[in-house]
Amino acid sequence: MSALLSADALALGKPSCTYCSGYGRRSILRGPEVICACVWRAVFRACYRRFRECAGSAGHINGITLARCGGPSGYRVYSRKREEFAADFVLLARRSLGLEELAVFNSHFLLGADWRLCCRQMHIDRGAFFHLVYAVEVRMGRVYAECDPYSLFPVAGYFAGVVRKSPVGRVA
């Protein structure tokens, strides 16, 4: 079961996508509908945009925020959300990607190298490089959206400090 709802997939679907035509879901032969790869790439790009904002403000002193956490007592914790988001972004990629995909992630996304330099360093051609870039975007978009219990997407939810409480009537 995917963490994205149909409405979210519809909103993130790319209108020029040849597989889903902007609906965000595509049907598979003899199977249920699945979320299209263009949606996962949009999720990755939203998280990557916020990561760049967080990394760009690394030289500035970030204020400590007081966040309310779940539980019956609703305890509070101090945190640095921008640094935590950047760390989660990178650590999830290190855990989820293979060696070749991780090399593309590190050089292209983290260090900002263009495709010519990456192709020269990795000894691959342009087509193979962009195939790896799209594969990284799809895989990491899905990981960032489906990370449990607190996903990186939607990004506003990560920074808002979502409160997780136990269901009514149950004592934790």
Major sheet description: 2 strands, antiparallel
SSE order, one letter for each helix or strand: HEEHEEHHHHH
Helix and strand composition category: mainly alpha
CATH topology of the domain at 40-156: Butyryl-CoA Dehydrogenase, subunit A, domain 3
Number of strand elements:
4
Terminal CA distance reads 25 Å
If you average the pLDDT, what whole number results? 83
**SS field, number of helical segments:** 7
- Quick one: CATH class of the domain at 40-156? Mainly Alpha
- For the biggest β-sheet, the strand order reads 1-2
Radius of gyration: 18 Å
Strand content: 5-15%
Shape: globular
CATH architecture of the domain at 40-156: Up-down Bundle
Helix content: 40-55%
Low-confidence stretches are none
Write structural notes for this entry.
Helix 2 (37-56) crosses helix 3 (81-96), helix 2 crosses helix 6 (126-146) and helix 3 (81-96) packs across helix 6 (126-146). The protein has helices at 6-12, 37-56, 81-96, 99-110, 115-122, 126-146, 155-160; strands at residues 25-27, 33-35, 65-68, 76-79. It is globular. It has a domain at 40-156: Butyryl-CoA Dehydrogenase, subunit A, domain 3. It has 172 residues and is mainly alpha-helical.
Question: What are the defining features of this structure?
Answer:
172 residues, mainly alpha, Butyryl-CoA Dehydrogenase, subunit A, domain 3
Q: Briefly, what is this?
A:
With 172 residues, this protein is mainly alpha-helical. Helices cover 52% and strands 8% of the residues.
